[in-house]
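--- STAGE predict ---
source: upstream dedup step, 1 unique chain passed
mode: sequence only
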Amino acid sequence: MTRAWLVFACALALAAVGCDASWLGAAPADRGPGGLKAGTIVVARPADATSLDPARPSDNESSEVISQLYDTLVRYRPGTTEIEPGLAVAWEVDPAGRSWTFRLRPGVRFHDGTPLDAAAVVFSFERQRDPQHPYHRGKFAYWENAFKNIERVEAVAPMIVRITISDRFAPFLAAMATFPVSIVSPTAVARFGDDFGDHPVGTGAYRLERWTRGERIVVVRNPDYWGPRPPIDRVVFEVIPDARQRLIALESGAVDLALAILPGESQFLDLHPGLTLHRPPANNVTYLAMNCARPPFDQPAVRQALAQAINKQAIVRLAYQGLATAADGPLPPSQWGYRAGLGAVRFDPAAARARLEKLAAEGAIDLAHTYKLYAPTTPRPYLPNPEQVARIIRANLEEVGLHVELVLQPFAATRQDTQAGRHDLALAGWVGDNGDPDNYLYLMFDKDNTVPGIARNIAFYRDDAVSTLLRRAQRVEDRGEREQLYAEAQARIAADAPWVPLAHSQVTVAAREDITGVVVDPTGHVVYAGLKRVKR
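--- STAGE serialize ---
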């Protein structure tokens, strides 16, 4: 161990002296005489959920807990993007690819004791789809971007559901495994109304015990779960905003898992004999979006010049401590459809400055103006140190003559502002939901997804040719043909440069050595139902 890391380890140890689980504020029921109960897992993460109604949020912290409380019709085999039965035991599609029929699993009950049936599935979809539905209120974060091709959902028998979509859609089953279309209890929604997100009721392996906003969420094992019984009785999601404090809590034994570990601390974790660092393959992208709806970023020449100004290697080396790869396009290398080099731009600040000065002389950009770069302060799975990345980008842009003001806010506020289109530039990212390129390319580059307020395409990039290619790919079953269409779309996107793709980061989950069965799904979430605590 180097001297620097020895000093760091000693500092952690000193900070942890006298630090037991009580400082986290957990209830006595979660603790035994020796600390944590054997059947409890405590997870430290940087932020709290916003809602536990699966139809509402789009943040990672909410979806992580939602995945424990609810089930979907189909699901991913743990650690993969392979589809397997969930609440549906079988399904079929008509020759036109528009009518999907699902046969439901018998004997399943919601946490409130009411039975799962076709009517509950119809309710779960229709409250999002139908503006006339009595519980269609407020904003449904994903529906308009990801599920608007659903035309009708109907119960054709007590345990059989038919979903009709507008056209053949190759990623349909993959989309059905994502959390926004989790099946909710109609009885609970009717009971709690707009407060259902605080009182979630699903069919999942865990049910909500309590939620102290801003502090912790506690879920307990569902004794009536239809699937294998989870080995762990209770999972506690603790909010610890400071990354160093999360690490101290893990090292001291106050928590069992820590999420969003800073890249610079991974070496300490690798060297610590009682801790294990899990690094699943990256399925994410971090990017700088340029708002194509606002001058001067409505001009490809301006955007191309800025792309030359960003030093991705410095970002990977300094902000990610090497625990990422520089991105040359929107798709991570682990995602099928990825083509190496399609969006590669050589870092050349001298050329960028010369291009911007020429554009300024032509009146295409005002280099005396200050442009606003929005960035979150909350760590994200794809962006463990967002403020440092934002400051590197600002330094790069200032070097080529562009004046930049940083607008640093918590993630929820940044997301709200950028989806509304208030930014000139935005530091953002995405974690793949379902293992299909459509989940990246259509959501973030199709012109339909630029509706202010719910935009997923926060570059507000609108190109008819790109949208045509992406929609053709949705209707093609052959993967080879789809890959070719996606390659054409990516090449065109790269030429227009609405983004500067920055990095694909490693997701790091740190665990104490007595926690086994750590599997991370494609969205970067731990599969908590598979965790075990073993005696050492």
